[in-house]
Design brief:
Layout: H1 4-32, H2 36-130, H3 132-150, E1 156-158, E2 170-172, E3 180-184, H4 188-196, H5 200-225, E4 235-238, H6 242-251, H7 253-261, E5 264-267, H8 269-346, H9 351-369
Helix pairs in contact: 1-2, 3-8, 4-5, 8-9
């Protein structure tokens, strides 16, 4: 079916052509003087030709419009199909992206909860470390965990009483029976003030405070826990923070040297674990030496028993040899007796005497045959 605008255009074009043909025929008839019948016939022919051309033109336009409509429909179907596939693919991608986004949001939510918990734990840790007693308990607890994880139960003791009635945080029993003293100290307030100092005067004042606190700890350990003949000549001052230990070694090397001269070693958690491993290896070597001495003693006793067994076997062999000699001498005597018995048997006796002689010689033959 033709579009109304195209149909109107075709009708207008046909009307224009018809009018032009009519005008041309009338003009020619007027100028040539032809009769009206001829002119009317010519007009009819022109009208018929115009109608035929108009019909052919309409058929051509109809075919063209049909092809165009079919092409447009095919392209619309193709575009619709591709658009549907694209929408479906986009929907799947969007669904996958939304699912991944939900998973990531869940991970972020979980991480946020962990961060919130960690923040609360850090806040509680700060509140714990703000108190001196709580800070001391924290340091001692960390030291106890390291020692319990590294040594057997019979190799250490917490709050061990020395001969001067003082109790260090921990002692480790070494093979020479003199314990190694470990005392936990945590100069956190002074070190924190030293870190937070913004001016040179504040830093200088905080540094003096650090030196005062650490020197006091060193002197307390050296005076209270280094007992000649009872404890080791070296004691450990445990600092339960790697950062505080690094701060002391980096900015207060004079304190480290002073502690070394006072025979007090400042150790961090990692160094304490290393020292515990060395102590454990030393104790293992000592146990191996004790076991080796015990094995040597047992081997000596075993060799002594083997020697006694050899002596007894040799005596038994001598007894066997003597028994063999006695048996050999007995066999010789038996052979002599048999020889004499045979000679006696050759002598004529009465029946009873012969039977007695055979009865007497029978056991001798059995003994000779090994029965």
């Amino acid at each position: 079916m033709l579009d109304p605008s195209i149909l109107a255009l075709l009708v207008l074009l046909a009307a224009c052509l018809t009018l032009a043909a009519v005008a041309f025929v009338l003009w020619r008839g007027r100028n040539s003087g032809e009769p009206h019948a001829v002119v009317i016939a010519e007009l009819a022919r022109v009208q018929t030709d115009t109608a035929a051309r108009l019909e052919a033109l309409m058929g051509h336009f109809t075919n063209t419009q049909s092809q165009l409509q079919r092409s447009v429909n095919e392209r619309l179907d193709s575009v619709t199909h591709r658009l549907g596939e694209s929408i479906q693919h986009t929907t799947l991608k969007t669904t996958e992206n939304l699912q991944k986004l939900n998973e990531r949001l869940a991970v972020i939510d979980s991480a946020q909860k962990n961060i919130t918990q960690l923040a609360s734990q850090v806040t509680s840790l700060q509140s714990i470390l703000a108190n001196k007693q709580s800070r001391g308990a924290f340091g001692q607890g960390r030291m106890e965990i390291i020692i319990r994880d590294g040594l057997p139960k019979d190799c250490y003791a917490f709050q061990y009483t020395l001969s001067n009635k003082l109790r260090p945080d921990c002692v480790i029993f070494l093979p020479d029976e003199r314990p190694l003293v470990i005392d936990s100290k945590f100069p956190l307030e002074a070190v924190t003030a030293y870190r937070d100092a913004k001016t040179d005067d504040e830093r200088k004042f905080a540094g003096a405070r650090v030196r005062q606190d650490v020197v006091k700890h060193i002197n307390d350990i050296a005076e209270k826990y280094l007992l000649p003949g009872e404890t080791q000549e070296l004691a450990f001052m445990f600092v339960p923070s790697e950062s505080v230990y690094a701060e002391l070694h980096e900015d207060f090397d004079d304190l480290v040297q002073k502690a070394f001269r006072a025979k007090v070693a400042i150790v961090s958690p990692s160094l304490l674990m290393l020292a515990i491993q060395l102590v454990r290896q030393n104790q293992r070597d000592a146990r191996m030496r004790v076991a080796a001495d015990h094995i040597r003693d047992e081997v000596g006793r075993l060799m002594k028993d083997v020697g006694l067994l050899g002596d007894r076997i040799r005596k038994l062999q001598a007894h066997f040899n003597q028994s063999n000699e006695d048996i050999r001498q007995s066999i010789i005597s038996i052979e002599k007796i048999e020889s004499r018995g045979e000679r006696i048997a050759d002598v004529e006796f009465d029946g009873a005497a012969a039977e007695d002689a055979q009865a007497l010689s029978a056991p001798v033959r059995k003994l000779q045959a090994g029965e």
